[in-house]
Design a protein that fits this description.
- It contains 3 helices and 5 strands, in the order H-H-E-E-E-E-E-H.
- It has 110 residues and is of the alpha+beta class.
- A hairpin with a 2-residue loop joins strand 2 and strand 3.
- Helix 1 packs across helix 2.
- The protein is globular and about 45 Å long.
């Protein structure tokens, strides 16, 4: 993996390590919420600040048209959105791009 393009490299490694510990402990087959809640516990044990299910208004021409709720925001820098899936799809990628736009967090490309 080319780490030059990863923002918040050390934080990303910590999140991935925490997620792997959660998965190895709980094993596959549970609902996403179980992994999300366990990940919150593990990340806090590692000293991270977590905002779970923080709400962001989506505006269109100054009017709120929806509410976006990413699963986790870690240290006010990274969105962590646990998925129970075999593969990531273009829909998952589009969802994350939307999260980044609305939360005004940065993507690796920008």
């Amino acid at each position: 993996m080319n780490t030059d393009k990863i923002l918040h490299h050390e934080l990303s490694e910590s999140i991935i390590g925490a997620a792997m510990k959660v998965l190895n402990t709980l094993k596959p087959g549970l609902d996403e919420k179980a992994y999300e809640n366990a990940l919150v516990i593990e990340l806090r044990k590692r000293g991270h600040r977590i905002e779970q299910q923080k709400q962001f208004d989506v505006h269109y021409e100054g009017i709120v048209v929806d509410t976006l709720i990413p699963d986790l925001i870690v240290d006010d820098l990274v969105i962590a959105d646990p998925k129970v899936t075999e593969d990531f799809t273009p829909t998952h990628t589009a969802q994350m791009i939307g999260y980044l736009a609305i939360t005004q967090l940065r993507s690796p490309c920008c």
